[in-house]
Each structure stands twice: as structure tokens, then as C-alpha cells.
Amino acid sequence: MPDNIVKDPIENKILNILRDVPDFPKPGIMFKDITPILSSPKLFSETIDALTNLVQKYQPNCIAGIEARGFLFGTPIASKLQLPFIPIRKPGKLPWKKKSVSYSLEYGEATIEVHEDALDFVEGKPKVAVIDDLLATGGTTEASCKLIKQINGEVVVAAYVLELGFLTGRQIIEEHAAVESLATVS
């Protein structure tokens, strides 16, 4: 899609408020900072509404958020849809029995965890929507999909505020679930 074509008015608003942070978290990375969205109550609310609409069509019965910005967007979606919320966290943050997956990401190695009984509170076959702020190379979401599968769930959609379309994250995640994003940087 050419850069001058906007899919949706929310995409234009998101792209206009993003902040580029060079050399974060390490030299050579141009970090796309979504925190200005959080500073705008109106845009944050519009973003939650738009993400909720994207996710709802997949009929999930549970929402999972990836630490930490996935919590910011995932919990309001879970609340709006009246669905359970599952936090996917960094090691040492969850107090109960857990499953973990280690993986590579664009700037190093990481591990994420989830409570092994997280889906026990879901009615019916667990159909999970995974929420995060940004889709880059897809490593964290792919690990999240593997975690959800380990605890007998199915990821039906992974939804993001922003997608870095010049990276391969979408192709990696589409092997596990549908992919939705509100805005794309080419």
C-alpha cells in the first residue's frame, strides 16, 4: 500500500502522533514510541474502540496482553467485551505455577511466562485474542502463541496498534493466527 493512502482515519491519527526514538533500546534501532497515544485521552479511547472492533469479529472468549504495553490496550478491550484477561509476563513476575517460552527478538533473547491455569477461567474452548502495541519481527507474539497452545488454548487473532510493515512479523504470526493492526509503517 502506498504511503499516501490511509486505510482508516484512526491510522492517520496514530501515524501523526507517533514519536521516533533513535538508537533505542540499542544503537541502530529506530523505536516507534506509542506513548503519545496514552497522553491523549480521546485518541486512546478511539484506539481502544478500534482495536475492540477488530478483535470482536474473531469471537474470542479471552484476551491476552503481552507485557507491558499489551496490558495497557488489552485490559480495556477485555473489559469492554466482558472477557477474562490473561497477562503474558517477563520471568519472575507471575506468582503462581507457570509455563514459559524463550525466544529470539530483534535486539537479543527473551523469555515470557503465563500461569498454567490461565485458561481454566474461560468458558468453552479457549479462543484467545493476543494484544500488543507493536508488531515488528513477531518473536514475542509467536512465543505468546506457543504459550497459549501449551495451556490448551487457540490464538484466533493477534492485534496491534502499530505494525512495522517493512519487517517479517506478519508472515510469522499468520502461521499461528489472523493478524490485525490499526496502522502500518512501510
What would a concise description of this structure say?
The protein is of the alpha/beta class.
Q: How is the secondary structure organized here?
A:
Layout: H1 9-17, E1 19-22, E2 30-33, H2 35-38, H3 41-56, E3 62-66, H4 69-81, E4 85-88, E5 98-105, E6 108-115, E7 127-135, H5 139-150, E8 154-164, H6 169-173, E9 178-185
Parallel strand pairs: 3-4, 3-7, 7-8, 8-9
Antiparallel strand pairs: 1-2, 5-6
Helix pairs in contact: 3-4
Describe the structure.
32% of the residues lie in helices and 33% in strands. The chain is of the alpha/beta class and 186 residues long. The chain has one domain (9-185): Rossmann fold, CATH 3.40.50. The strands form 3 sheets. It has a 5-stranded parallel sheet. Strand 8, helix 6 (169-173) and strand 9 (178-185) form a beta-alpha-beta unit. Helix 3 (41-56) crosses helix 4 (69-81). The protein is globular, with a radius of gyration of 16 Å. It starts with 8 loop residues before the first helix and ends with a strand.
